[in-house]
Design brief:
The structure is a single chain. By secondary structure, the chain is an alpha/beta fold. It starts with a helix and ends with a helix. The protein binds flavin-adenine dinucleotide. The site of flavin-adenine dinucleotide has 23 residues, from β3, α6, α7 and β6.
């Protein structure tokens, strides 16, 4: 189980993949996993579509990671995709009996096709409510999400951390952060998390910027700030894709070095099925 990896006091190095979209070639992800395996990550996490439209793929991919690659798989699951307790029990049983004993419990966001009423009526309001039921069902290693730059819906960092504390007290074994590019923000967040008495490992989540087009998506999705140094590099190389990729990777490597020097519990790389990117960072 992933929680046991933290007893060694060595940082973990993890990757994240996502199930291919409907109609896409599903073999691509399995080829990528065969290559990720050779990088010997501590674990690989598999995302879950907020509306549940990737459920079968998420399960199949997590099972491949755990049972064919021999690497701990961390399956994401969102409240937004759970209609009732029976669904949860079936999903967890399927995971557990297939040797997958790690779950990232999330609330998820409102999918485009879901009405406000449907989203508001979800069975579990928050990740903390979901965790409570997971805990009562099986012995999973449970991860939660956290936000160094504050979750968009929280009124303040203090409020967000107070909610995070509730989540951790329900049984979170470790946390993974939203992606960020400014280590100082992470260090400040970590200080506040520790001051609040949250003492589980916190894994910083990093995603290298490898193309100019990616920036708008990343900022839109996560609300992260792009520090001046990185913004200048993006501007300088916007017409030179190869140089931009190199600069983006260099930036992430520097970020990693800073985090590890500061004693980070691990590094979670939002590798998003990109073998070339993961290899460059791991090497
Ligand atoms: P929560 O912990 O429920 O928090 C959501 C908001 O509610 C916050 O503002 C918080 O302050 C507040 N809150 C929390 N608990 C309480 C409480 N008890 N009472 C009142 N308020 C509370 N999305 C996907 O759809 N699929 C994925 O696979 C996926 N993977 C992710 C992986 C990571 C590492 C991260 C950081 C995010 C991921 N997301 C994913 C996005 C995530 O679903 C969204 O960010 C979502 O908006 C919040 O999820 P959460 O689990 O952090 O929610």
């Amino acid at each position: 189980m992933i929680k046991d990896l933290f007893h060694t006091n060595r940082p973990t190095y993890s990757l994240e993949v996502f199930p291919p979209k409907k109609d896409a070639d599903v073999t691509v992800i399995y080829d990528a996993l065969d290559e990720f395996k050779n990088l010997h990550p501590s674990f690989i996490s598999v995302t879950y579509g907020a509306g549940g439209n990737t459920a079968e793929n998420t399960f199949a991919i997590a099972s491949y990671i755990q049972n064919q690659c021999g690497i701990e798989a961390l399956t994401h699951l969102t409240c937004a995709a759970i209609p009732d307790k029976l669904f949860l029990t079936n999903f967890l049983t399927n995971l557990y009996r297939n040797g997958i004993h790690n779950l990232l419990a999330l609330r998820g966001d409102q999918p485009q096709w879901m009405s406000d009423e449907q989203f508001a009526a979800r069975y579990y309001d928050h990740a903390s409510d979901l965790i409570q039921d997971v805990k009562e069902t099986y012995d999973f290693s449970i991860a939660g999400a956290c936000y160094p730059e504050v979750h968009q819906e929280a009124a303040s960092l203090e409020e967000d951390i107070a909610h995070l504390k509730i989540k951790v007290e329900q049984g979170v074994d470790f946390l993974i952060t939203q992606l960020f590019y400014d280590n100082e923000l992470f260090f400040r967040f970590l200080d506040k998390v520790r001051e609040a008495g949250i003492d589980v490992p916190v894994l910083p989540g990093l995603m290298p910027i490898t193309s100019a087009g990616q920036v708008k998506n990343i900022v839109g999705m996560s609300g992260t700030k792009i520090p001046e140094e990185l913004a200048k590099a993006i501007e300088r190389y916007q017409d030179s894709p190869e140089d931009l990729k190199k600069a983006g990777l260099e930036y992430t490597k520097k970020q990693m070095e800073g985090l590890l020097a500061h004693g980070a519990d691990g590094i979670h790389l939002y590798s998003m099925n990109k073998v070339e990117i993961a290899k460059a960072i791991y090497e």
